[in-house]
Design brief:
About 80% of the residues lie in helices and about 0% in strands. By secondary structure, the chain is mainly α. The protein has two domains: about 200 residues, Growth Hormone, Chain: A (Up-down Bundle); about 190 residues, Growth Hormone, Chain: A (Up-down Bundle), CATH 1.20.1250.20. The chain starts with 7 loop residues before the first helix and ends in a 6-residue tail after the last helix.
Length: about 425
């Protein structure tokens, strides 16, 4: 059985692969106190299960990208799912905090396989607007899964505790392993053309590290990766600082915060949906991307100015955070397309760089919000949002977009047909 790449089921499978990392992190959020009690440790040590998972998730793609370009998408995804099952199961059985943290690093590293390689699979199979549409649809899974994961974890917690949550993530990875094995065919062009016996027509397989030089030396690919990372930095400043700002400063209840967080997430989902509709209508990439960057910069700058003048209220915050989230939904599918499109022969490496830069920028953004947070104003959160979103807009307008125009002029010189 092999799924048709143009089918809805195929898109769902890619979305499930990208959803596994946020499910593995956010499902365990309600279980942190239970972990601390069970393993006789502190809440801060229990929170390291999230931080170290993200460390592994940031580092794993560095290897998965070139390996998938060289040896194929299927073996890398299957290996990643298998390692995830082992790590999640061993974590569920861990009897001490150091052992749990060790397995969480491996779990994070293995989770990066499906998340990164699914983008490379989309690039292998699709071009132009079809690729943009698939990336927009797959990206929605990254939005929906964090919205439902904490509730799913809270449902499992009374019955199986934190070990039951880890066991459930292992079961999900088993299901994904089976789906990949049964339904996903190999998509790397040189392997499809040559088969397992070796390259056809004397065409060499990609060298493991050559893809990094190719991607990092491509100004468009690298530029789009950086714009995507900076936009994510703005979003992650909100994610890391919103609970402190809304609960501690504005005094709302955790329950109301959860509702507002979900409402803002719906704005993000709306951006992905609109982008998919614009692609279906043949709208050029730079239009929704430019609009998203401008909208994100304006909304975050207004938030910062309101915070600076001490006039920001909870209603003002939410009213400006929703369009900011909506803007990110317009940005990320198009920056991912811009990064992957120029380097089809190194799509795995491009997807890896895209992911690693996102995680590093998100970590830096979160650290800066924590460092500057004063417990009295939302300036740390809104300031970082404004800084990262303005940097993304400036980089795109001053570097990436002009490089794109120059490339188009070289490909279609005046007077050519």
């Amino acid at each position: 059985m092999r799924l048709d790449p143009n089918s809805f089921a195929f898109t769902i499978l890619l979305g499930m692969l990208t959803a596994l990392p946020p499910l593995a992190t956010d499902m365990s959020l309600p279980a942190l106190p239970d972990i601390a009690r069970s393993l006789d440790t502190t809440a801060g040590a229990a929170a390291l299960t999230l931080s170290l998972f993200l460390v592994g998730f940031a580092l794993g793609p560095v290897a998965y990208g070139p390996l998938s370009d060289r040896y194929g998408r299927r073996p890398v995804m299957l290996s990643g799912c298998a390692l995830f099952v082992v790590a999640a199961t061993a974590g569920a059985l861990a009897g001490s905090m150091p052992m749990l943290l060790f397995w969480r690093v491996l779990q994070g590293a293995s989770a990066g396989a499906g998340s990164v390689v699914s983008y490379a699979v989309a690039r292998d199979l699709f071009e132009g607007d079809a690729l943009r549409r698939r990336l927009s649809q797959v990206s929605m899974a990254r939005v929906v899964s964090p919205m439902v994961a904490p509730s799913l974890g809270a449902l499992v917690l009374p019955f199986g505790g934190w070990r039951g949550i880890y066991g459930l993530t292992a079961a999900l990875a088993v299901a994904l392993f089976a789906l990949v094995a049964l339904a996903l065919h190999e998509t790397v062009p040189h392997l499809v053309e040559s088969g397992p016996a070796g390259p056809a027509n004397g065409r060499p397989r990609p060298r493991l590290l050559a893809g990094y030089a190719r991607v990092l030396g491509n100004p468009l690919c690298l530029g789009y990766c950086l714009v995507n990372a900076l936009a994510f930095g703005a979003l992650f400043a909100y994610i890391s600082g919103s609970s402190l700002v809304m609960i501690q400063i504005f005094g709302i209840s955790p329950r109301l915060f959860g509702g507002l967080f979900a409402a803002i997430d719906l704005g993000l989902l709306g951006g992905f949906f609109l982008n998919a509709r614009l692609v279906a209508r043949g709208i050029a990439l730079h239009l929704p991307l430019s609009s998203g960057l401008v909208l994100g910069a304006l909304s975050s700058l207004l938030l910062f100015l309101l915070s600076f003048t001490d006039r920001a209220g909870i209603a003002d915050m939410v009213a400006l955070l929703i369009p900011g989230a909506f803007a990110y939904g317009l940005i990320t599918p198009n920056t991912a397309h811009g990064a992957l499109q120029p380097v089809p022969e190194a799509a795995g490496v491009a997807a890896a760089i895209l992911s690693v830069l996102m995680m590093l920028t998100g970590a830096a953004s979160s650290a800066l919000v924590s460092f500057f947070y004063d417990g009295e104003t939302p300036l740390a959160m809104t300031g970082m949002m404004a800084a990262f979103s303005l940097a993304a807009l400036v980089l795109y307008a001053a570097s990436v977009r002009p490089a794109e125009r120059r490339l188009r002029q070289r490909q279609n010189p005046p007077g050519s047909r």
